[in-house]
Amino acid sequence: MIRRVKAAVAVLLCAVLLASCGDASVFSDSENLTKKVKRSTDTALTYHYADGAQDPPTTYTTFANGVTTFALSAFRARSQAEKGSFVFSTASSFLQLNLLANAASADTRLEILQALAGNLTLDDCNACSSYFKSRIESVSKIGQKEAPDAQVTLGGALLVDKDTDVKTSFLQTNQNFFGYDVFRFDFKDEHAASKLDAYFKDYTDSSGISLTGGTMHTASALSVSDAWLEASVPTGKGTFNGADGAREADYFTSDAKALKSDKATGVMKYTAKTPLKLLLIQPKEGTSLGDYIDSFDIHELEALLGSVDITAKDVAAIPAFSVTTDKKAVPLSDSLSKSGLYSLFTDKAGFSALNYTNNGKLGEMYEIPTDFTVSQNGVNAEASTAAKADAQKPTVTIDRPFIFMLLDNESNLPLLMGQYQ
Predict the structure, then answer these.
(1) Distance between terminal CA atoms of the chain?
(2) I want to staple 66 with a disulfide (CB 3.0 to 4.6 A). Which of 117, 191, 212, 377 is the partner?
(3) Would you tell me how many other CB atoms lie within 10 Å of the CB of residue 402?
(4) Shortest CA distance to 136 belongs to which of 418, 419, 414, 417?
(5) pLDDT in tens, the chain (421 residues)
(6) Which residues, at least 6 apart from 241, have a Cβ–Cβ distance to it below 8 Å?
């Protein structure tokens, strides 16, 4: 009898021990350094929208112009490398770069800041990034019971090798302004890949992130969906003159604002709950999409946005389209290096503000690409909540390869960009 009791106790102790060890295929609390630090709620410091920061920092316009210029440059570099349609989360990239500026040594920090926002200080950029990220995520949650599918999530993490001693000051800055998770773990562990897959399960089944070539990496992911603010009506088949020739496409018509410049035409359409607007921009006939993208800069974007006539009644004929991906992590180092970050991914970059030994090296910045669908229902929307409407005669038609952009309503900062051919 005593032997049976001892055996039962041994089994129970073993079970408790195993439970305390947790699941080796997911990140443990000890590996998530973010859990050790609490975010400040002082809006005078953080400009966090959910805490009550209703107005942006005074440098926000300068920041938005600088970051938009950088985002367009990175988009051009991506476009030159891509053969077909693609989508690129420009906001995820600049937010992760801003986070890295807080980890960097003086020269590397200066390179990042000059690429992003010219002469703004790190404190300026942190506050502006915090306001942008927190606002765009928070606004979509307002009235979520009425529109549960309306959301924007800018996910991401900093991945640090187990031998890197991360400074508490960096962790505090990350929590105050960015809210990303910082994981320190063994990159060579047999469960490293499954931990990343479990962490990014809302974005992909298998991230494909490689943890070679550095002691730190970043990974970002975007999720966005919403219905249209204005009603849309399916109008049947139409002709889309794609890069490979004419093909049939399903079209819908909708109230939208016409865009035009010397080089292009397009439309602008608002989402219902998220603080976003969709731009579809096609070069004028006779100009290829690639040639137009090569010249697409902030001045061209400002010309298009400045052409909007708020008094006009515009109706757009828009093709329903979808850009699907395998959701495998895409390395960003090549396109970012061509956009002013010449030494960030080399041995010349230093990260003395991250750790005490300054021996960290950035291996790669990854983006897990999102699928992007535009239909009569909205952006990545399964069903429309907009009011019913009658089909109208379009005043502008999107019928050839185009750029698509989701912009923040307040700052015109691009959340994502892509091309459709």
Answers:
(1) 77
(2) 117
(3) 26
(4) 414
(5) 444 444 444 444 444 444 445 689 999 999 999 998 999 999 999 999 999 999 999 999 999 999 999 999 999 999 999 989 999 999 999 999 999 999 999 999 999 999 999 889 999 999 999 999 999 999 977 755 555 678 999 999 999 999 999 999 999 999 999 999 999 999 999 999 999 999 999 999 999 999 999 999 999 999 999 999 998 999 999 999 999 999 999 999 999 999 999 999 999 999 999 999 999 999 999 999 999 999 999 999 999 999 999 999 999 999 999 999 999 999 999 999 999 999 999 999 999 999 988 678 999 999 999 999 999 999 999 865 544 556 679 999 999 999 999 999 999 999 999 999 9
(6) 399, 400, 401
For every residue of the chain, which 3-state class applies, written as one string?
CHHHHHHHHHHHHHHHHHHHHCCCCCCCCCCEHHHHCCCCCCHHHHCCHHHCCCCCCCCHHHHHHHHHHHHHHHHHHHHHHCCCCEEECHHHHHHHHHHHHHHCCHHHHHHHHHHHHCCCCHHHHHHHHHHHHHHHHHHCCCCCCCCCCCEEEEEEEEEEECCCCECHHHHHHHHHHCCCEEEEECCCCCCHHHHHHHHCCCCCCCCCCCCCCCCEEEEEEEEEEEEECCCEEEEEEEEEEECCEEEEEEEEEEECEEEECCCEEEEEEEECCCCEEEEEEEECCCCCHHHHHHHCCHHHHHHHHHCCCCCCCCEEEEECEEECCCCCCEECHHHHHCCCCCCCCCCCCCCCCCECCCCCCEEEEEEECCCEEEECCEECCCCCCCCCCCCCCCCEECCCCEEEEEEECCCCCEEEEEEEC
- Rounded Cα distance between 374 and 319, Å, is 8
Task: Retrieve residue 83's tokens.
Answer: 């053969």
**CA–CA dist 36, 257 (Å, integer):** 48
Tokens read off for 405: 């952009």
Q: Which single residue is written with the structure tokens 């990343």?
A: 196
CA distance 136 to 131: 8
> Which tokens hold the place of 232?
């849309």
Instruction: Answer yes or no: pTM beyond 0.70.
Output: yes
